[in-house]
Write a structure and sequence with these properties.
The protein is built from 13 helices and five strands. The chain has helices spanning about 15-30, 40-45, 50-70, 85-95, 100-105, 105-115, 120-135, 150-165, 205-215, 230-240, 245-255, 260-285, 290-320; strands at about 1-5, 35-40, 75-80, 140, 175. The chain binds tryptophanyl-5'AMP.
């Protein structure tokens, strides 16, 4: 199976990215799969419009992927912009894309509803995402719940293209793990760079602990039973604790006689245990920027040759180039 996924370098990586997507990248990185993982730097331009910022987020995400365990010997790891053909495919797909399909996309609708004046890139974004996926004949795309609609658009566009020009594009399937599909942020909303409610993957342990201890909880007294299913601390705890420990916390919540502070402390401890090795590898990679750059260049070459093969077929099928 060909697996593909990407992350925008539009801010610091957080545990929502890790549990919602990156952990699945690692699981799928096995003998049976050919994994393509990339940094979606063209996508990030819809929100990051300072060159130095885009560069530094790109570097950070590159180190981040490697620090959590993406192995360049097992996966093709690259920058989106090292395969410029993806923009060509996006244009071709946009010519079979009904306007209504994009108008219904939530990322665009939300911005409009909030009174922002979205740029055309944001409107067009799902088409570029479809190109990212289709250009590598991807079968499965591990993502969090917020990307599900974009995967539906991708499937629609592949089918529309194939109906118009012949069976060339592979129709992919999303790969979403229900338990981690939406990781809550510190304020209970979805964890997101834009809500400023994240636990970053590579911030110092002390900062992670401080943020966790400040999570707002309800005012149920220590003695009273508590509802684990309506508690951000419990939701996060269940991501980092073993199944057995999660079950024990669930029972303690229901029994009462436990303060939120205790659960927060354990959450901070387990989160830092998970993140410590990532932080160490990240720091090492900060001192080895040439190594990271070499990996990206090499990955870019491999990805590009796959993309070029598909594009030849697409160009011929659409009449852009003559049939040989
Ligand atoms: P991005 O950069 O917003 O997020 C990267 C991945 O992290 C997941 N994620 C979450 N999962 C669960 N809970 C959360 N709170 C949470 N926050 C983020 C996202 O679902 C995503 O899987 N459009 C994509 C990038 C992209 C892409 C692609 C993905 C561009 N081209 C092709 C797959 C295939 C995005 O903005 O993800």
């Amino acid at each position: 199976m060909r697996v593909l996924s990407g992350i925008q370098p539009s801010g610091k990586l957080h545990i929502g990215n890790y549990f919602g997507a990156m952990r699945q990248y690692l699981k799928l990185q096995s003998e049976e799969n050919e994994c393509f993982y990339f940094i979606a730097n063209y996508h990030a331009m819809t929100s990051v419009q300072a060159a130095d910022e885009l560069q530094s987020y790109t570097d950070e995400v590159a180190r981040g992927y490697l620090a959590v365990g993406i192995n360049p010997d097992k996966s093709v790891f690259f920058r989106q912009s090292d395969v410029p053909e993806v923009c060509e495919l996006a244009w071709i797909l946009s010519c079979v894309t009904p306007m209504g399909l994009l108008e219904r996309c939530v990322s665009y609708k939300e911005k409009v509803e909030h009174g922002l004046r979205p740029n055309h890139g944001l409107f067009f974004y799902p088409v570029l995402q479809a190109a990212d996926i289709l250009i590598y004949n991807s079968h499965i795309v591990p993502v969090g719940q917020d990307q599900k609609q974009h995967l539906e658009v991708t499937r629609d566009l592949a089918i529309k293209f194939n109906n118009t020009y012949g069976e060339i594009l592979t129709v992919p399937d999303p790969y979403i793990i229900t338990a981690t599909a939406v990781v809550p942020g510190l304020d209970g909303r979805k964890m997101s760079k834009s809500y400023n409610n994240t636990l970053e993957l590579f911030e110092p342990a002390g900062r992670t602990k401080k943020k966790i201890m400040r999570i707002v909880t309800d005012s149920t007294p220590v003695e009273a039973p508590k509802d684990p299913d309506n508690c951000t601390v419990f939701a996060l705890l269940s991501l980092v604790a073993s199944q057995q420990e999660t079950q024990e916390w669930r029972e303690r919540y229901r029994r009462g006689g436990m303060g939120y502070g205790e659960a927060k402390k354990r959450l901070a401890e387990l989160t830092n245990e998970l993140l410590d090795p990532f932080r160490r590898r990240y720091d090492e990679l900060c001192r080895n920027s040439d190594y990271v750059e070499d990996i990206l260049r090499e990955g870019g070459k491999k990805a590009r040759s796959v993309a070029q093969e598909l594009m030849e077929k697409v160009r011929t099928a659409t009449g852009i180039t003559k049939q040989k």
